Amino acid sequence: MDQISPSRPRADSPASSKTAPKADPLPGPASTDVGAAPRAGWRTRALMFGLPALLIAAGAGWWLTSGGSVSTDNAYVQMDKVSVAAEVGGRIVEVAVRDGQQVAKGQLLFRIDREPYALTVAQATAAIDAAQVEVGNLSAGANTSRVDIAAAREDVKFAAVNFDRQAALMEKGFTTRAAYDAARYALTQARERVRQTEAAATEARTKLAAGPSSGVNPQVEAARVQRSQAEVNLGRTTVRAPSAGRVAQSDRLQIGQMMVAGLPAVTLVDTARPWVEANFKETDLAAMRVGQRAEIRFDAYPGVTVRGHVLTIGAGTGSEFSVLPAQNATGNWVKVTQRVPVRIAFDEKPARDMIAGLSADVRVFTK
Q1: Which is more confident, 337 or 328?
Q2: Which of 252, 227, 256, 226 is nearest to 113 (CA)?
Q3: Distance CA 112, CA 239 (A)
Q4: Most buried of the four, 15, 56, 64, 223, by CB within 10 Å?
Q5: Is residue 257 included in any domain, yes or no?
Q6: What is the C-alpha to C-alpha distance for residues 230 and 121, in angstroms, rounded to an integer?
Q7: Taking CA 258 as the corner, what is the angle to CA 253 and CA 261, rounded to the nearest 5 degrees?
Q8: Are 297 and 304 in contact (CB under 8 A)?
Q9: How much is the pLDDT for 154?
Q10: 356 and 67 in contact (C-beta within 8 Å)?
């Protein structure tokens, strides 16, 4: 039995004469499809293994180094500040500085009217002259007292002779009781004058005596001390800088203004020797020691880093030296981590000028 095979178009049939349509090729060159897969796989493996490794390394580094330092942002630049006040009062007649000016030690700041103090010096000089004149009078009085004493003693001798004569006559009855009493009274008075003149001479010698420490008459010495004090006050009318620094708060230095003695008139900030006062938590002090290395950064100067070291660790917390210290002996007491001031000294000169009160970040390396 013949099998029926599938019919195929003949070569000479019309269907075979038509050309079959070709399929559209895939976009892109064939060579790109071959190399894309290896590169994509390499990037994937780099992200899968490299990024975790990098994170692990960073975490390990942070873990290894975090225990070797302590840091705080509760830190501020500090400088020595000197408040300059006039030691005498008076009217300001000259101002030689302005706010922000750098001054050297001994440089003139301002002057006070010196005329009243010059008059005081002249008055003290006159007092010295008066004391010296008084000493001369006392010396002359002492010489007169010696003469008076001699004369009084002669009067005593004469009164004694007269009294003896009256006493002898009284025994023989050749004189009266009144004459006898008068002679005895005259003798008593003569002796009293001797005592008075001797006391006056002693007083004059005492006033003329020199002081045991100075060797000068006390009245003259007192007058000289008064003149020295007046000269000192005259010199204090010129106010000079007690130390080098930058002038601040000089708004009270106005010509014609009355200056009160002891009232701060201007402040000098010592910009040459700044330091940082860092307030560390008490829990950070376990491994901190004097001399440890430190790094200082400033909010005002990004990128500026200064090397330093721990100079001192405070003897008390900040609350201990506050005006109103905390009272923890109450029933609602809450424990608060205390701050201890740590002084950080600079080991190098900063690249920028320091200003007192600038905020800083301090890291101390405890290992």
Answers
A1: 337
A2: 256
A3: 8
A4: 223
A5: yes
A6: 5
A7: 90
A8: yes
A9: 86
A10: no
| Domain range for 172 | 116-235
pLDDT tens readout for residues 67-105 = 688 999 999 999 999 999 999 999 999 999 999 999 999
Is 357 part of any domain? yes
Residue 111 tokens read as 């002057």
Element of type H or E holding 14: helix 14-17
Residue 54 lies in a domain: no
Q: How confident is the model over 250-281, as pLDDT tens digits? A: 888 999 999 999 999 999 999 989 999 999 99
Question: Residues 112-115: contacts with CB within 8 Å, 24+ apart?
Answer: 112/86, 112/88, 112/236, 112/237, 112/238, 112/239, 112/259, 113/237, 114/90, 114/234, 114/237, 114/238
Residue 304, both tokens: 């500026």
Is 8 within the bounds of a domain?
no
Beta-bridge partners for 247 = 268
User: Using an 8 Å Cβ cutoff, are 360 and 343 in contact?
Assistant: no
Q: What distances in angstroms separate CA 272 from CA 76, 246, 253, 295, one per listed residue?
A: 16, 10, 24, 19
Q: Is the pLDDT of residue 23 over 60?
A: no
Domain final position from 235, 260, 275: 235
Written as six digits, the tokens of 185 are: 């009274």
Measured distance CA(296)–CA(262) in Å, rounded: 38
Q: How far apart are CA 231 and CA 96, in angstroms?
A: 23
Number of H helices, E strands in the chain: 5, 12
Check if the beta carbon of residue 360 is closer than 8 Å to that of residue 75.
Answer: yes
Measured in degrees and rounded to the nearest 5, phi and psi for residue 331 equal -75, -25
Provide the number of structural domains found in the chain: 2
Beta carbons within 8 Å of 196's beta carbon, 6+ residues apart: 152
> How far, rounded to the nearest angstrom, does the alpha carbon of residue 121 sit from its chain's CA centroid?
33
φ and ψ at 11, to 5 degrees? Answer: -65, -30
Residue showing tokens 């006159």: 126
Total residues found in the chain within this entry:
367
211 band by pLDDT with thresholds 50, 70 and 90: low
* pLDDT tens digits, one per residue of 304-323: 999 999 999 999 888 777 77
